[in-house]
Design a protein that fits this description.
Layout (H helix, E strand, L loop, with lengths): L10 H4 L1 H9 L8 E4 L6 H7 L4 E6 L5 H9 L6 E5 L11 E7 L2 H4 L5 H14 E12 L4 H10 L11 H7 L5 E7 L9 H15 L10 E7 L1
Parallel strand pairs: 1-2, 1-4, 2-3, 4-5
Antiparallel strand pairs: 5-7, 6-7
């Protein structure tokens, strides 16, 4: 099993979120109840199910057939169920030990709807049991260079609502404990996965240690209810 089974794009940088979650989470994933929000192809649901969690794999219009096939191929179908769930209206209260997502809030807030992003995080908080954890990985605004190139070269770059760390702190304020790290600078500029892999190597060993925190383009963290 490799990180590519869980993360489909910019794998080296985004998969650092998985390492961080393992280090910082206080949950025993084996036997826990979990919800993946905005799943699409089911990678994070696979990651949790392989550790023994019972997972609801969800997306706005339901996960893809590729998600279902992936879980079947890895023998975890008995631990995964599938639902259509709107992140701004999650039909559970005090139910899950873990809620997790990757790169979801930017799409929820498309066309500058910050209030929808806030609502989504509030709904995730509501869905968790007391002591439950939100495992998150999200796109940050990054540097001026990131913002410029997204507007020019990423087809959704003008519409997607990237978060600042200040906004993230605001959204997560209802949680009793929050810890996170920021990741990556060069990786976002790669045009192919091979380029992103090479650039993310430079990020890990050369760039991340020296660039300001608010120049990095990924945040990964754990928030405890």
């Amino acid at each position: 099993m490799t990180a590519r089974d869980y993360i489909q794009w910019d794998v080296r940088n985004w998969s650092l979120a998985l390492e961080y979650w393992r280090q910082q989470s206080g949950q025993d994933f084996a036997g826990c109840k979990a919800l993946e929000v905005g799943s699409q192809n089911g990678g994070l649901s696979l990651w949790l199910a392989l550790q023994g969690a019972s997972v609801i794999c969800s997306d706005l219009e339901g996960p893809t057939n590729a998600a279902i096939r992936k879980h079947q191929e890895h023998g975890v179908s008995d631990l995964v169920t599938y639902e259509s769930v709107d992140a701004t209206s999650i039909p559970y209260t005090n139910y899950f030990d873990v809620v997790l997502f990757k790169s979801v809030l930017g799409g929820v807030g498309v066309n500058d709807h910050k209030e929808r992003q806030q609502k989504a995080v509030s709904e995730m908080h509501k869905a968790l049991k007391t002591g439950g954890e939100l495992l998150f990985a999200e796109n940050l605004t990054g540097s001026t260079a990131h913002q410029f190139f997204r507007r020019r070269f990423v087809k959704w770059g003008r519409d997607w609502r990237y978060l600042s760390l200040r906004e993230l702190d605001e959204f997560l304020s209802p949680f009793s404990k929050v810890t996170y790290r920021t990741i990556g600078f060069l990786g976002a500029f790669g045009r192919t996965e091979r380029q992103r892999e090479v650039l993310s190597w430079f990020d890990k060993y050369l760039i991340d240690p020296v660039v300001p925190t608010n120049w990095r383009y990924i945040v990964a963290g754990v928030a405890t209810k």
